[in-house]
Write a structure and sequence with these properties.
single chain, NAD(P)-bd_dom_sf, SDR family oxidoreductase, globular, Rossmann fold, SDR_fam, 8 helices
């Protein structure tokens, strides 16, 4: 799945799933513009990615930019930076996500809902719009939105997060229909992955959670990254408008 000469924007790329996606794309030869809110985190991530080369096939180049995925001005800047740095904007990976403090839908802070939807729904749309207008409309491309397995259920206190991700899933379908045949748009729904963002879920009961999963382990960021890179690659040339559930089989685990 070589992607030499292609360029990608990966949001929320300073750690976790986004960092692993950037690693996978660079290893396949693609250039990567990595973005996140934390400037120091972006700088450190770029340094680690550049240092992780080694011998073998050509690796892509990586640069970093800061800003909020929920800020349309920032997403516009990222697209133009990617074009200036690498000469194209072939791939967009909307990985950045706002996971606010747990709260029921009926009495959650309205400001939290607005911020969550800004980052998880409006931001991805703004980034795809900018990429479409600047590059993809004429040259094609592929988009992957990172959703969550939670859209298939209702996690306690996760109303804002899961509802916004469900909206992103539906947006994925609409964009796939609207931008075909030149641009493919898909999503990945990760199960419980061992990231810092989800640490408070998995760390207190990792062994029990793993044993309840048919694959007998929790996910790693690299598991999700492999799915994302595949969906962006020519190997998935006839795949669009789909959601790839990557959860270690949790959804088919026998009920106890």
């Amino acid at each position: 799945m070589r992607l030499d000469g292609r360029a990608a924007i990966v949001t929320g790329g300073s750690r976790g799933i986004g960092f692993a996606v950037a690693q996978g794309l660079l290893a396949s030869g693609a250039d990567v513009l990595l973005t996140a809110r934390d400037g120091i985190g972006v700088e450190e991530a770029v340094e680690r990615l550049r240092a992780g080369g080694g011998s073998g096939e050509r690796r892509g180049r990586v640069e970093g930019r800061t800003g909020s995925a929920g800020d349309p001005d920032a997403t516009d800047r990222w697209v133009r930076s990617c074009l200036e740095l690498f000469g194209s904007v072939d791939f967009v990976v909307n990985n950045a996500g706002a996971n606010q403090p747990l709260a029921p839908a009926v009495n959650g802070d309205p400001a939290v809902w607005l911020d969550t939807f800004a980052v998880n729904v409006h931001g991805p749309l703004a980034l795809v719009r900018a990429a479409w207008q600047v590059w993809m409309r004429e040259h094609g491309g592929a988009v992957v939105n990172v959703v969550t397995e939670g859209v298939h259920g209702a996690g306690p206190g996760l109303a804002a997060y899961e509802t916004s991700k469900a909206a992103l899933l539906q947006l994925t379908r609409h964009l796939a229909a609207e931008l075909a045949p030149g641009v493919r748009v898909n999503s990945v729904s990760p199960g419980l992955v061992r990231t810092e963002l989800a640490r408070h879920y998995w760390e207190p009961a990792e062994r029990q959670l793993a044993s309840a999963t048919p694959m007998r382990r929790l996910g790693e960021p690299e598991d999700i990254a492999a799915a994302v890179v595949w969906l962006l690659s020519p190997a998935a040339a006839w795949v669009t408008g789909t959601d790839l559930l990557v959860d270690g089989g949790r959804r088919v685990a026998p009920r106890r």
